[in-house]
Write the structure tokens for this entry.
Amino acid sequence: MKFMKLGSKPDSFQSEGNDIRFVGSELATDIVVNIGDVRFYLHKFPLLSKSTRLQKLVSSTIEEDEEIDISDIPGGLSAFEICAKFCYGMTVTLNAYNVISARCAAEYLEMHESIEKGNLIYKIDVFLNTSIFRSWKDSIIILHTTKSLLPWSEDLKIVARCIDSIASKASIEPSKVEWSYTYNRKKDPHWNGVPTVPKDWWVEDLCELDIDFYKRVIVSIKNQARTSVGVIGEALRAYTLRRGSLEKGDVAKNRLLVETIVELLPVERGCVRCGFLLTLLRAACVLECSEAMKRELVKRVGQQLEEACASDLLIPAPAEDDTMYDVDLVLNIVEEFVMRGRGSEGYVLEGEIIGRSPVAPVMSGTLQVKVAKLVDGYLAEVSKDPNLPLSKFIDLAEMVSGASRPTHDGLYRAIDMYLKGHPGLSKSERKRICTLMDCRKLSMDACTHAVQNERLPLRVVVQILFFEQARASASPSHNPLPDSLAPRENNGSLGSSRSATTTTNAEEDWDEGLLNAASMRLVGRKGSERSIGSVSSVEKGHGKEAKGGGGGVSKKMFSRLWSGKGSRAGGENSSSDTSGSPRYSVNHGNHHNHHHLEEAKSTPSRNNRHSVS
């Protein structure tokens, strides 16, 4: 730290109690200076020879004891004492902590060159220009001290000069940095051990500034246009995290902090990480910041949503909402991401957004895959909320293009979580949510889980079995299913293309027919000894399937389906042996299978489901 000594005489200021100060001298004092409750007993000649203001005050007083009051002097007692000692020629030491208060007090006392050459104002200005403003840390220290000396420090341009000094040094090439600085953060992962100055060397030291001064310094750094937006973004993140929790303490102070940081963010995309933007957005919601600022943050998050993780999006809902999380906010973010692709290079868009239900655009690249996975993970988390409406779940799931999901395992997990957390859904609602999923994009593990999942509608299980059978039985001899029995789709998802007027009984008949037809295809293929053998082994009670058959996995699923669905429906045809393995009565005659299919079609109720016999 830089310092400057003035004067050569020993310090002879003395005190009596807490409210009397005087100079130890043989000469009697002839002036009393009051500052608040403290009285200084001093001599006129040394003071009046260097202070124009004291001359004016003394000449205007009519009291015999020459008592004057200057309680409004900037810097208070300590600053006046420095000025008084300078007038007496006593030794005083100026440094970054007291020089600005002394400068403001000297200005108040009008200690200019016009009254005496080499006066205090001149000497302090020389010290500031030649030492303080050339020092990185001293400039930051004196900027701190100027806050308590406003508006004097502002009027004297000291604040502006401090900010210019700090911003100029922060904008210099790192290789030219020759002063000490604070740096406790992680070094660049590519650091090779050679001592080098990191690009963000100045970030931690500025975290000590109050928000109003910090804002002015960052604006000055940005105006000099020599610092990358990435470094500025890192500085804003470090400052925000250093100031403590954004959701606790003084609400007004924290709100000002969030609003200021958002205002200072560079306009360039990617200047800060998406996780930090979501931290700001969460704080903005809790602190009830302006809607305009929230929209700005939503837009920024949407522009780099692929960087986020599901936990970042778990923003609490407003107090007046029944839901746990603010799903509407996430809907806006995902919608912003979808809109981001419009007209952007590298994207091919097909479709348009209509309100909250977009015909999702088809985009090239991997960003959409990442966001689809993110949305599915988020849906799985918020599905645990019993108050989450089905409409919001569907709106968010449909916001992502089907082509962006190479696999639907994540979506299936989210749907299963929602069904588990909302057992009161109607049959039509369960069917509606399952139309989001394309069973052809489920992995083998997901299919195995799904066919045993009692929460899924029967039609979904049937379609999974059909597609799994087709996938496992792709041999040239395999005879495809008739079109009349093939699973039907609705916009690429599971569902039915039938008219909305189709009755519930007819739907159940169709489901039962599909189930029996799938069973016949599995066990009735001519010339496939392995298939018949595998099912026959189950019929004989072995409880396991033959090895090597291409349709082994599918037949295993059928076995589990028949054992599980029968118990779910409460029918009489479900049975098991003492070991818990399912039993099947299989007849390989095509005529009987055909007869059973017709019987299934005519069955009006799901509870009367027949087994293959």
